[in-house]
Amino acid sequence: MLELKHDLRLAKTRDEKARMNFVSGLRAHVLNDMASGMRSVYDADVEPQFRREHKRAPKDGPEVHKAIKANDYFKFYSTLRVTAQDMVWQSVIPPLERNRPELKQKAAKLSGKGKARGTLRLKPNFEVPRYVSAIDVHLMAGNYDGEYEKDDLAAGSLYDNGLAVFSFGLMGQNLDDIGQSIAGFIRLKYPNLKPKKILDLGCTIGHNTGSWKDHFPEAEVHGIDVAAPCLRYAHARAQAQDREVHFQQMNAEKLDFPDASFDVVFSSMFLHEVPKKSIAKIMDEAYRVLKPGGLMLHMELPPNSQLSAYDAFYLDWDSAYNNEPFYKPFRDLRPEELCKKAGFDPKKYVQFVIPSVGWYGEKVWREAATRPPEVDSDKTGRLTDGILWYCFGAWK
Amino acid sequence: MSRQPMRRTIRGGRPYFFADPAIDKVLNMVVVLASEVWTLRERLMAMEAIQVTRGGLKAGEIDRFEFKPEDEANLAAQRKEYIDSLFRVLAEQVDEARRSQPAAKPVTKPAAKSARKSAPRKKK
Questions:
Q1: What is the DSSP string of B67-119?
Q2: Three-state helix/strand/coil letters over chain A
Q3: Chain-chain contact of A87 with B121 (C-beta, under 8 angstroms)
Q4: 10 Å Cβ neighbour count for A333?
């Protein structure tokens, strides 16, 4: 299990650490070994059976899902994955519950004057959209916005520590592999891009927001989210890591920023958490707040149109079983059309597949900036050994 | 707002995969139990390591103990074996599938470099 290094990390007993280690190992087993096993079972049994019945291969993810559902291996894979997902959060809650008073004190100290350079602005009567307030996304009890006391930041800590267990090392030592891989890639690929202002939409605990400050230290970096406990935690976390980031409570569907005020508008693992109607509004807003010549970039799961039927099924699993109701509907959309509808010139559409810098190392990652790889159907956007991050967007 | 304990139940419930949801529930219990068995093993190893190092134990010593990097790596390898053996019964179906399709392409290609510190994986 990954140990967080910053000042907000939880004090854990030996047993609590061992439980987290177990869950991380269990997830690595399910998502690497069992996922690979399920593919073999599919190739040997499920797909041939489908061919016998239909005289053709399954055409898309839903057909694969339907065909594999009755298979015992799929059932064990799925129920173990749900169990492991649940155990991620259950392994964090007991030490977090015990550490809550201390966590609050630490955060207050970090947010105070002195070393602090970043800012935090919350809105007292902010309305959290129902697609966040009504569900426990990826089985995380309390979701991003749940509050259990005044000025609470427990949900932020649950997410940070949960991700450390969940990611079994694939999201980097500071859980910022996405941010580091992508912000660094953009800097290498576009050496003339000198952004003055960068915005991260749906930033949660700001774990990937800070990477933009690392790679573009001259830029003013902002992160927005709807969930107050995550933003409080994000602010304290950034302060603890000495990163100057400005966090504000805002809905990405209706930003408070003026027109043409940002050079880069970014998001990661965000669009698949919101309904289609909201995605359209978010894209419109990104276009509005971007300066001409600015770059919009969304790190996301790859669209179904670019995956094989089996890999589409594999990623759609979350939508069906991991409380991710908007995940498949998003992945059924075509990213280039989303950009076009928001007003971007189709000729200025961009798409990248970026090797994880943590997994592949600097050399492979640097080479990719000159020659980005294509979507690799069984690696792109999938939490597995050899992960590749997918992103799309457009220049304004 | 007065201080409340954190919620531990998931809104919307959890999905079930077997014809009888009791099977999913029993499996969940088995895995939680497996986690506790692992936790005991890790604690025991910590205790042994301390005994060897210092020849005795003090109160709270195990909770404060940190493994040396080489012990951590050893533990991670053992944990991987432990989890593999726990689910060996499921691997049988995969072995059979692979025997019937010797030319099936491997899904996970060897990666260039692992960034993971906590769970080094065996190369098979």
A1: --HHHHHHHHHHHHHHHHHHTHHHHHHHHHHHHH-TTPPPSSPPPS----SS-
A2: CCCCCCCCCCCCCHHHHHHHHHHHHHHHHHHHHHHHHHHHHHHHHHHHHHHHHHCCCCCCHHHHHHHHCCCHHHHHHHHHHHHHHHHHHHHHHHHHHHHHHHHHHHHHHHHCCCCCCCEEECCCCCCCCHHHHCCCHHHCCCCCCCCCCCCCCHHHHHHHHHHHHHCCCCCCCCCCHHHHHHHHHHHHHCCCCCCCEEEEECCCCCCCHHHHHHHCCCCEEEEEECCHHHHHHHHHHHHHCCCCEEEEECECCECCCCCCCEEEEEEECCHHHCCHHHHHHHHHHHHHHEEEEEEEEEEECCCHHHCCHHHHHHHHHHHHHCCCCCHHHHHCCCHHHHHHHCCCCHHHEEEEEEECHHHHCHHHHHHHHHCCCCCCCCCECCCCCCCEEEEEEEEC
A3: no
A4: 18
- Which long-range CB contacts under 8 A does B61-67 form with residues at least 24 apart? B62/A14, B63/A13, B63/A14, B63/A15, B65/A14
Domain range annotation of chain B: 21-100
Tens digit of each residue's pLDDT (9 = 90 or more) over A88-114: 999 999 999 999 999 999 999 988 655
Which chain B residue is nearest to residue A36, measuring alpha carbons? B107
CB-count exposure of residue B105 (10 Å: 0-12, 13-18, 19+)? exposed
pLDDT tens per residue across span B19-65: 998 899 889 889 988 999 999 989 988 888 888 887 777 777 777 88
Say which residue the tokens 């690979």 belong to.
A36
A150 and B35 within 8 Å at the Cβ level: the answer is no
**How large is the ipTM?**
0.73
Q: Which domains does chain A have, with CATH numbers?
A: 14-115+127-163 (no CATH), 173-395 (3.40.50.150)
Widest Cα–Cα separation across chain A? 71
Q: Which of A16, A33, A92, A151 to mutate to test the interface with B (most CBs of B within 10 A)?
A: A33
Across the interface, do B114 and A385 touch by the CB < 8 Å criterion? Answer: yes
